[in-house]
Amino acid sequence: MSQKNFTSVKGCGTAVSCQDCSLSSLCLPLSLHEQDIDRLDAIIKRGRPYQKGQTIWRQGEDFHSVLALRSGSVKSFITSPSGEEQIVGFHFAGEIIGLNGLFNKKYPITTVALETTTCCDIPYDSLDALADDLPELRDQLLQSMSQEISEDQQMMLLLSKKTSEQRLATFLVSVSERFQRRGYSATRFRLTMSRNDLGNFLGLAVETISRIFSKFQQKELLRFLDSSRDIELLDMAKLYELADLQDTQTTPCGKKIAG
Amino acid sequence: MSQKNFTSVKGCGTAVSCQDCSLSSLCLPLSLHEQDIDRLDAIIKRGRPYQKGQTIWRQGEDFHSVLALRSGSVKSFITSPSGEEQIVGFHFAGEIIGLNGLFNKKYPITTVALETTTCCDIPYDSLDALADDLPELRDQLLQSMSQEISEDQQMMLLLSKKTSEQRLATFLVSVSERFQRRGYSATRFRLTMSRNDLGNFLGLAVETISRIFSKFQQKELLRFLDSSRDIELLDMAKLYELADLQDTQTTPCGKKIAG
DNA sequence: CGAACTTTTGACAGGCTTCAAGACCGGTGG
DNA sequence: CCACCGGTCTTGAAGCCTGTCAAAAGTTCG
Question: Which nucleotide is nearest to B226 (CA to C1')?
Fold first, then answer.
């Protein structure tokens, strides 16, 4: 099964500068002046891609930089002392991850690539220094984190109050909105995470995820294309109704594009 | 039933400046110079106390300021379109609330006093201006939010993976640590929230909360003093074991003192 | 092509919710 | 001071949603 186009990022090759990157409007929605963007551009390191399953950073590791995802997708999870794992978010191209390593200067989560993933590495020391001069950048960082808090709290509501059907509907609608905002189809996309990951994230067993997907197909709310990972949403209205979503500004089930 | 001493805050009357406030080491853990504290002090407004049940701000309201709680306690919750409410945190004296209103310039949560509560009002415009000059203050704000993200994510794990007993144990141990850090007893304190609030927060029915408390009393893990709100923890070791807590830096079930 | 993994589907069980009723508590007024 | 009332808390019984166990079908990749 080949990677679908709508999850890949074009026009942002390894040599491209921030200013020319097609993601700049996503990962740099702040109103930076051209020269400021150049300064940010100067501190960014473009590393080699992470392969599927590769760990980007591990919980407890020293915090050193934040990453702007240029293509691909990742999952982040926390691990309890007894070994229980909880996925706390999926992230796609155009999103910035790792900011929550700020507290305590250690990454509080483990982040793993769900597919081949490329990203821009932004050393935090440099970012911090740059933020000294640029109030807009500071605001951007604060807002990103503020938004993440809201999203996590909506996840708390999901995990605490919603039924399995509502949870999956919420997830699908949220992901749909994120893709749409990024210019891709809102109704057809690839789920790069396994059913297992999905269940873990939504607080459900794998089997339950599978069952709800089957039920949704019977109800003709959605269907799968070539594989069980390529999905088409057929009845957005019903899905939205099921989801009982807060508003269009923040959604649970992973972070939207900052800003 | 009179208010227990260990939840009240002494030496921080209405006329006291930040510098002399007994909470300064809690709500101002940042390494501000004396003159900087004076500047912060100057922008803080000390309003009249909120009564039990009174709303401090409502979800969707325009964001204008953050609050430093000087005494009392509050609960914060989000409301879904269908009216479902989810408590996302309890806050006690020495904690700063409202920072997550930053994103979108609206409060994403409703906050209500659980008892008579006094607080310092910090207008965000002033705080923002002050942060321009004080890198330490900026770091403090970022770290507070970063910490809250970690705590919310541990709540996700709790809601997604833990049993009812583990949830309640986690809550008790977390609250205990927060009180201890503030200099109060780690084993005897007053639960200012109702069983209903507790259940809502932990994703359990009121009846379940009640049943687990009974079970914990049978097991002699804890006992209640005069009322069902005044608790004494008898077996911290067992409670910790049950809780399966991440580490001592961040705990779910509400925010610790920032810093 | 085969091994390992993922996904689906069925049967059953269990933890928690729901429903119901009674006990307890805290505040009010006679 | 005490009786009363509304709300909170506790306890029991029954039911359901979701998890667990098991097995088969589908998918991926060397």
Answer: C25
